[in-house]
Specification:
Layout lengths: L5 E2 L5 E2 L4 H6 L9 E5 L2 E5 L8 E5 L5 H14 L3 E5 L5 H8 L5 E7 L2 E6 L8 H23 L7 H24 L5 H31 L5 H22 L3 H20 L5 H28 L3
Parallel strand pairs: 5-6
Antiparallel strand pairs: 1-2, 3-4, 6-8, 7-8
Helix pairs in contact: 2-3, 2-5, 4-5, 4-6, 4-7, 5-6, 6-9, 7-8, 7-9, 8-9
Length: 302
Amino acid sequence: MRRKIIKQASRAYTITLPVDWVRKNGLNGGDELEFKTNEKSIVISTDSPREVKKISIDATEWQERTIMNTITALYSLGADEIKIISKKDISEYVRKALNNVMGFALVSENHNEYVIKEINSGEYQHLDEVFKRVFQIILAFYESAIKDIFGEEKEKLSSMSLRDIEVNKFCLYLQRAVNKSSYADVIKSRAIFTYSFALEKISDEIERLWRTNIKYKPTKPKELKSLAQMSSEGLGKAFEVFYQFSNNLMEELYSIREKARDKASTIKSTDPHVVRMMRHIIKIVEDAADLNHLSIMLKTEI
């Protein structure tokens, strides 16, 4: 969609707004709009009630995993209402998927039609606080994992899975918050979403590490604990980089990664489960260090 700039006599410049957008948001002459400018981009927004994003899908031929993954993906994408049509009973799968997200509920179930809607306010204005909360939850998740893996090993798969679901809820909520927000800077918008997705992947690595230990109970060399603690320190340093952005903090994170790599090369084990755990631990600190790249994109003005 393109619009011509109109030059006014007073040296002001105006453009017309798309009439469909004006009508959709119930705007009239004299109403105020919010402008966010960034280099060559302008985002125009309004405080009027937002448009409800609806989508309808036919899941008749789908299996459980596809149904659940589609619901969580549409949630992250920013859908406000999802209608699912299926000739078979999929209520169990729908409810399982809703256990993994925040603020969504199955509001209607009529024969072969299921309607899911957002039940919270739909406002995502404090994105920075959401980011901070998610990061803190993941850090706590890793600390709990290390404490259990190298401690009394009391955690069971069922309880660990509940912890993982709670972490994933916040990660998905963060992705949804990013997608529901408007940014004048398209590049930074993409970087923010990539960062949120990267945090979810780190959480997944922690879950796999913990699951391996619970399931196989391998005999772990003493050096593995110090490696995990080093990896956790690196993840904590990535949190500091995001909120106290500085070159020194980034260099400290890179240094921790290098030390972890060196440490891993000295650990000898023929147990395939220990080897797998070591890979997860290293992947966490590697991914944490990779967050520096995104932090630079988000914090640097050009």
